[in-house]
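Office hours follow-up: a student asked to see two folded examples consecutively, so here they are.
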Amino acid sequence: MSDRFRLTLGQLNPTVGDLPGNAALARKTWEAGRDAGAQLVALPELFLTGHDAKALLRNPAFQRDVTAHLEALAADCADGPALALGAPWVEGTKLHNAYLILQGGKITQRVLQHSPVPHSVFDAGPISGPYAVEGLRIGSPIGADGWESDVAETQAETGAEFLLIPNAAPHLRGAMDRRLNHMVARVIETELPLVYLNMAGGQDEAVYDGASFALNPSGKLALQLPAFEEAIAHVDLERGPEGWLIAAGDRAPQPSTLERDYRALVVGLRDYVSKVGAAKVLIENAGGHDAALAAMIARDALGADNLREIAVAAEGSLYSSLRDSLAALGAEVSVASLSLPLRSLMLRALADDAGELLLTAQNKSAAAMGHGAVLGDFNPIKDLYQTEVHALCQWRSETHRAWMLGPEAAAMAISEQSTEEHQLDDILRVLMDKDGSVEDCVAEGLDQRIAQEVARRHLEHRPQGNRSTPGPRVTAPRTEYPRPARWRGRS
């Protein structure tokens, strides 16, 4: 057995349900690994189907199509390194989240996820032992299996010399620190080097943030890939007297909390637009922080040429178009008569006519209080409280990055946030993020009378909020069911 092993990582952006496109990405990554002399090319969890393909996974025709693409990939990648990738796997009547090893023209080995997340479409599998590639025995806890010790420890005890953990973990505030802490725990428990391979890109409301990394048995970071970017990287393992170690590689700078949130919103919008086959978006320029931030996100995601803004009451605007249309019919219309339903209808007609997606620009605080908004195709600020919208407006006004397609000088009119706005958000965080009560608000020093009114209005408008436009998530969803202790804090 050689004392050196090269692993090629594909931190890439698959599309749910696009088996031919995802397989093409896998082939491209395999070719890069082959040309770099890799022994193994690895892709993330459920890469072939995209991560959240629930509506398709139980379809027998789709399952057969998955198998056909796996077999074609194995044949195409027969002469070169092994290829490891995530895909659904059917055994009898059970459907598993699997990690499959393709080598020599066949699917030679497979790992099944042992502990699917609650309410998953997948069935639990036995703890899989390590698999061998070029003599190196590799353990691969899949996704959630990596958050606890049992799978990794069992694989180490049955001969694994190295851990490769494929995942599809979305950006949520604080998630990166939690991931790193969990993975450090795995290497300390097993005394094995570890590579954590994450997906990148947006899919509907999830934004997978990449930032894959490698740890040596001491817990020291050996390599980290960029956040929110696709990347193909080659990682070398070297065997010494004390076992295998990961050679030091590049450690990409990681963004701040505000930048992580903002980039998640940009990537989420960019990929939502591209994956539904569109290119341009339309937004109502209604004034205020919400519209300003949503428009800037669209510029940074798609470029200014792919954003159209319409100010309702301005000449050359939706109002003018509506006024002229009705005038031709002998009717008159005033600005005051442009109700929300009518604005929504007209904006929808204009967007559809131009082949554009219609954006909603409404923050979470406004939605929770029942304030109306244009019901569009996507809301890039859906998961931000009003004070967070303000903070990101301020940050973007002062910041420009190479990945932003919008202008460097992005000064937005930013008004001061009132005490009432801060208090409203503090109350909503207790009610919505912590699933708390008015009593919990009071215990945190918030005004009882205001908390009662906010709680009343939030409860009254909750059904409306549940039907709202989709948008990228940056905070963990409120737990709708009790989770076992072992599941708390996972992301």
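And the second, which I mentioned at the end of office hours:
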Amino acid sequence: MRKLFILGIGMLCTFANAQNIDDVIRYSNDNPQGTARFQAMGGAFGALGGDLSSLNINPAGSAVFNFSEFTVTGSNYNRNNDATYGNSISNTDINSLEINQAGGVFVFNASDDSPWRKLSLAVNYDLVNNFDNEFRASGSSNQGIDNYFLNFAQGQALGPLRVQNGERIDDAYLDIGSSIGFGAQQAFLGFQSGLIEPNDDADENTGYFSNAQYTNVNQEYAQITSGYNSKFTLNLAGQYQENLYLGASLNFHTVFYDKLTTFDETGYDAASDIQSTRFDNFLHTEGNGFSFSLGAIAKLNDNIRVGGSYQSPTWYRLTDDISQRINTDSPVGNPNINLIDFNIISLFPEYTIKTPSKLTGSAAIIFGKEGLLSFDYGYQDMSQAELRPTSDAAFANENQFISEQLGVVNSYRIGGEYRIDQVSLRAGYRFEEGPYENEEIIGDLTGYSGGIGYSFGPSRLDLSFSKTEQDTNDFLFDSGASNSAMVNRINTNISLGYSVKF
């Protein structure tokens, strides 16, 4: 039977795996893959328009279409991760297949005496982020998982960590979480598993020590994520006279995110009462969000276009639930500890993440019907991100931490296209700075792309290949120990899109 409990708002931020800086970064990373043409040119469409995924950069782009059009795109996502932990390197490689874009634009020509030459109405779905990913780390460390539980236990009275007469251990786990909070709940797991012990047996005791003896321990860690962040866009744009395009969009976001972490630890000293520990966590997040965008594109002459756009903050309303399980071979552990498993679910109240707004400036050179070059520059101040309600003390502390740790993210995209009769050859480059002031936590992202398109008259088939690379420093524990794995992340996408004018 599944058992659930709800934590009060005052306890919300004590869950170290959620509602923190990591979530802000995850949902601020607005990284739509888009149409195959969009991907092949590095997403540099802010001054070009004429592509449904260009609405993610500049909502004025739909007014550039001369005909109504429908586009659908499917992509194969490959995730290749090399995790360095200690002196060991572990590789994981996964693939997933998604319909990542679908949409249409309807173009309406105005009367000859109107300064508005045409109006366009567009609807588009884009996969902003595909969360399907996995990495594994294996190596030795002088910091064991006992530090995680000791960090939560120190200062916590022993009395509430006991299982009362006639009480089931899983009910006690639920009760302490709902009445005291997540931190005490972690101390409960450490104590009931026999991994940590109180300094004395009095209920008033607030000091603890580890039952694990070691100089170095062997650790195996896996993080498996799945889900998506999608965006549905409603767009209205128009061409004013001959050289100005204006547009606005309303964006509706949907989030589903799952994260499973598994952790195994062995290699304790021969004299240690504990010889093995396993600790697993599962986080599920879902919710929705809203944002809007405004933009303009100007034709300075027949060859040069410039564009500018404003992307508002995105306001996400999210809910989390977590489940945990722990097992040790401690002789003093509660023999019923296995009753606490993934069927015991902790529910958290709804909360809000406000991601920072973004400004984009763009320029493009058009070489008649032969081809084009395009450039986009994006500016986003990640230190302005917030967890809400800001009246919550824990959120206020985390927001202060966010403002100190995160900084401005500058991004650059360059794309080009060369046409030979019905064939279009494309290439792109992308560079995006890491969001942390300390670049060793998340490094800069670089990407390359290329593709080809073939026009069949009213329809077009596009194929693209894109590859990005980024280094991240992923911590195994959220508190108590600084163990981390350096992960080299290489994402490769192959996309096929079909467009038809009508």
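Two things to take away from it. The helical segments are 21-28, 36-40, 146-153, 169-179, 182-192, 393-405. The first helix runs from residue 21 to 28.
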